[in-house]
Specification:
Strand content of chain A: under 5%
Number of helices of chain A: 25
CATH superfamily of chain B: P-loop containing nucleotide triphosphate hydrolases
Helix content of chain A: over 70%
Number of domains of chain B: 1
Largest sheet of chain B: 6 strands, mixed
Number of helices of chain B: 10
Distance between the termini of chain A: 49 Å
Distance between the termini of chain B: 30 Å
Shape of chain B: globular
Structural class of chain B: alpha/beta
Strand order of the largest sheet of chain B: 6-7-8-3-9-10
Shape of chain A: globular
CATH class of chain B: Alpha Beta
Helix content of chain B: 25-40%
Order of helices and strands of chain B: EEEHEEHEHHHHEHEHEEHH
Oligomer: heterodimer
Largest interface: A-B, 38 and 50 residues
Number of strands of chain B: 10
Number of strands of chain A: 6
Structural class of chain A: mainly alpha
CATH topology of chain B: Rossmann fold
Number of domains of chain A: 3
Strand content of chain B: 15-25%
Strand order of the largest sheet of chain A: 1-4
Largest sheet of chain A: 2 strands, parallel
Chain lengths: ~575, ~260
């Protein structure tokens, strides 16, 4: 039976088209477009500013034109001419709103309120062609881009993902030029590849962009469907074979980690070091929030305790008392101090749940920072002057000085802590935490000692964070109270939530992306928290289980459905069969 | 019957504000007995279970399990003393797998802490293996419904009846002396109900649990109970065999009405 053509809902088209326009105006009015216009992705024409604003009608039109999911009992529809039309209308509406904005702000000066709505912005939005001609270009461009967004649905399913992914890769190559050029240099092919791909610091060359697109398209196309097959093969493999796969994977990962700092050079290693320190913290917070379900908004307190304990014990110039231990000798003391901090924070909040717990821990985070800043404790922690001259870490005669050296220490510890997280998750303790997260009352009725489980989570989470803090102190070489503000807590929590609560691979991805990427895109750092906020809202709405969900939540829906169907069939058959003898 | 009841309750009272949920209740369950607790909605049956499992503290009275007063103990300590329950509105750990749900039931019967888990000590591995083995055995009690590929499925994909079964398995895994079942057949179809009724009897006869259940389905009550206790407004209004209770005037008046005649036939 031929499928009907999809008829997008007109009301939805109009609403989303206007919403897209408002989004585009918002991005312009906060100065994002104007700031991004300076960054070239593909020389000479594709600049980040225009890409950003063009993405808005594209994405909204894509959503407008998306056919409903195929469900049982509903005849499937396929995209047709109306799909394109709806996309074009949405794009036109988006552009109309932007045009209206341009016309109004040309006539009325709103700079007193919206500082960024400047003549240069208006020139950018009208493509330097004056308002009249600019608006025409806007409307035509918006319509075409909208149709383009809708046209994605017309691409045969097999090619759709590869086509879109390849475009994303071109944008990534343009955006992360620093990183990618350095990787090629580190691989000793930079002299030949980079001049071909990149034009100075102006982004990709045109032939570079086309090459990247084709390469990414071919790779994505060949991998399409492979993932499913691989997962199936892995699921069907015997434990011994699976073990071998895991060992090979581990060896490859270790090899990559071993050569990474050499390839990336000093600056990028620095970025990864920072991401690594946040990874250590995120692993700890993953135990507290992800496993045990205790929302801790003051997690930075434990990070600070670790950093200060490490600094006081190892720095020869710590104010009151300076035993000048080595890092290794200080570790047991750091862990004990962190455990105590965990008990101090954990005990008063044992009876609290949810929101109350979050608010109280938020307070604890601030208390920690203020204590370290206070005059009362200045003799011990140096107040606002902090503690300086925290020595480098050394193993025997080898001293770890540069970011590249430090990379090994941080990621070695990360591997240990990843193992610890995994081991705890798959044990009696981890199960008790998860039960508590799911339903505290029932967990207690089923025998879980809530007091012990909560304290264990706080203590172990605190120890993990404190190790990150100690490494931070040694890496920076000096610590000050203002390094330990609430933003650290929020960032770590973001890593855990965006990555996937309770999922170790998710947390790793979260830390690398959310901490690493902003460092690479420092020029846009003023928009960091805006993007964090938008990302958080998007994740909570669309993918609350995170980018890489934990095992329980990752259960493929159709797998379950298939199993359920099989079971239902058996049940139905069982009905006709005589009852088994009891 | 043994000299001392497994569960002995004397003079138990609990009020929520002005509402007397349980009033000076005396109650006992002997070892190897199946006692049904019935009564109209709001009679205090679930409150009674909540009191016995320590989820809410009583205002007055004694709850003695196997010779020890358990009033004031935390719910997990009471489970350790051998009282496990299920819930009227199935309360599983929905995102944990079937096997993990049952393993939680064994929490108090196992004992390795974080250090053993991290070091993966031989003792830890052995205990973990035994626990999994035992969990699988427990699930096998329900036939082929909760075994095989089901072990690693999250509890939230199970059918309603299977969730009820899993909840019972979770309680069984804690090796209780006394099993409290709160409306085990609620929401089940007649075939499932009949099957579960048999299972309740098997729980006592084959697994050796002493059982106290709250039940609304009089056919179930009539078939499994050694003794029936009727609650109304928090007080015991009748006690005895199913037939004695079903023909008791006060019970008929308070609750069973004409329905009892139908159910008993």
């Amino acid at each position: 039976m031929a499928a009907r053509f999809h008829r997008p809902d007109p009301r939805r088209t109009v609403v989303l088209g206007i919403a897209g326009g408002l989004t585009a105006v918002f991005l312009s009015a906060i100065g994002m477009v104007e700031e991004f216009i300076k960054r070239s992705l593909v020389d000479p024409e594709v600049v980040l500013g225009y890409v950003t604003i063009a993405l808005v009608p594209f994405v909204f039109a894509y959503v407008v034109a998306r056919p409903p999911p195929v469900r049982e009992g509903i005849a499937p529809v396929r995209p047709g001419p109306l799909t394109l039309a709806a996309g074009a209308v949405a794009g036109l509406l988006t552009a109309s709103v932007v045009s209206l904005f341009v016309v109004i702000t040309t006539e009325v000066n709103v700079r007193g309120v919206l500082q960024n709505v400047s003549p240069p912005l208006l020139e950018t939005l009208t493509f330097h062609r004056g308002v009249g001609q600019g608006v025409v270009w806007l409307l035509v461009g918006g319509t075409l881009i909208g149709a383009g967004g809708a046209a994605v649905h017309l691409i045969p399913a097999r090619y759709r993902r590869p086509v879109v992914l390849a475009v994303v890769w071109v944008l990534i190559f343009g955006l992360l030029q620093v990183l990618i050029a350095q990787i090629f240099r580190g691989l000793k092919v930079g002299d030949t590849v980079n001049p071909f791909l990149y034009k100075g610091s102006r982004g990709l060359t045109i032939h570079g962009a086309i090459t990247v697109w084709i390469a990414a398209f071919l790779i994505a196309l060949s991998l399409e469907g492979q993932r499913e097959a691989m997962r199936r093969r892995l699921a069907e493999a015997t434990p011994a074979v699976r073990r071998n796969y895991m060992l090979v994977g581990l060896a490859v990962a270790l090899l990559i980690l071993a050569v990474t700092p050499q390839i990336l050079g000093n600056f990028l290693s620095e970025v990864l070091d920072l991401a690594g320190i946040f990874l250590l913290m995120a692993l700890g917070l993953n135990i507290v929030v992800g496993y045990a379900g205790l929302l801790d908004l003051g997690y930075v307190a434990f990070f600070a305790v670790g950093a200060y304990t490490g600094a006081v014990l190892t720095s020869p110039s710590s104010p009151e008392w300076n035993p000048a231990f080595t890092f290794w000798a200080a570790i047991p003391f750091i862990m004990v101090a962190a455990a105590l901090a965990g008990i101090i924070v954990g005990t008063p909040v044992l009876r609290m749940r949810g929101d109350y717990l979050a608010i109280v821990t938020l307070g604890f985070g601030e208390i920690a920072r203020i204590l370290f800043l206070s005059d009362a404790l200045k003799p011990y922690f140096g107040g606002a002057q902090g503690i300086i001259r925290v020595p480098n870490i050394s193993i025997g005669p080898v001293e770890f000085v540069t970011s590249q050296d430090f990379f090994y220490i941080i990621y070695a510890l990360a591997i240990v802590l990843i193992y610890v997280s995994w081991a705890l998750q798959h044990s009696r303790v981890g199960r008790a935490w998860m039960a508590m997260r799911e339903d505290e009352t029932v967990a207690e009725v089923m025998g879980v000692n809530i007091v012990a489980a909560k304290l264990q989570a706080f203590i172990i989470g605190a120890i993990l964070a404190s190790l990150g803090g100690a490494l931070f102190a040694h890496k920076i070489g000096s610590i000050f109270p203002h390094s330990f503000n609430i933003v650290v807590s929020i960032t770590v929590l973001m890593c855990v939530i965006v990555g996937g609560m309770g999922s170790i691979p998710g947390v790793i991805l979260g830390a690398i992306v959310l901490v690493g990427a902003p460092e690479l895109l420092r020029e846009f750092s003023e928009f960091k928290f805006l993007l964090y906020g938008a990302l958080l809202i998007f994740m909570m709405q669309m993918k609350p289980e995170g980018l890489i969900p934990s095992r329980q939540r990752a259960q493929e829906l159709h797998q379950d459905e298939a199993a359920q169907d099989a079971w239902l069939r058996r049940e139905a058959l069982g009905d006709t069969e005589p009852e088994p003898a009891k | 019957m043994s000299a001392q009841p497994l569960l002995q309750i004397r003079n138990l009272s609990k009020a929520f504000g002005g509402l007397m949920a349980i009033q000076e209740l005396d109650f006992h369950v002997n070892k190897d007995e199946i006692v049904s607790l019935i009564g109209p909605n709001g009679a205090g049956k679930t409150t009674f279970f909540n009191l016995v499992t320590g989820m809410i503290p009583p205002d007055a009275g004694q709850i003695v399990v196997d010779g020890h007063d358990i009033v004031g103990l935390r719910p997990n300590q009471i489970l350790e003393r051998g009282v496990a329950r299920t819930f009227q509105n199935v309360r599983l750990f929905p995102n944990m797998t079937v096997l993990e749900n049952v393993l939680i039931g064994q929490h108090t019967r196992t004992g390795t802490g974080p250090v053993g888990a991290i070091l993966r000590t031989p003792a830890f591995r052995r205990q973990e293996e035994q626990a999994v083995e035992k969990a699988k055995e427990t699930l096998a009690f329900f036939g082929s419904r909760l075994v095989g590929y089901r072990f690693d499925q999250p509890a939230n994909v199970l059918s309603y009846a299977n969730r009820r079964r899993l909840e019972i398995a979770r309680a069984m895994a804690s090796e209780p002396k006394l099993l409290l079942l709160d409306e085990p057949t609620a929401g089940m179809n007649p075939r499932e109900t009949a099957e579960l009724t048999e299972l309740v009897a098997k729980l006592r006869d084959e697994q050796g649990f002493t059982i106290c259940l709250i039940e609304h389905d009089m056919r179930v009550v009539g078939r499994v109970s050694d003794r029936v206790v009727v609650l109304d407004y928090g007080t015991k209004i009748a006690e005895g065999s199913y037939h004695e209770v079903a023909n008791d005037e006060r019970v008929v008046e308070a609750y069973l009405g004409t329905k009892a005649g139908k159910a008993a036939s």
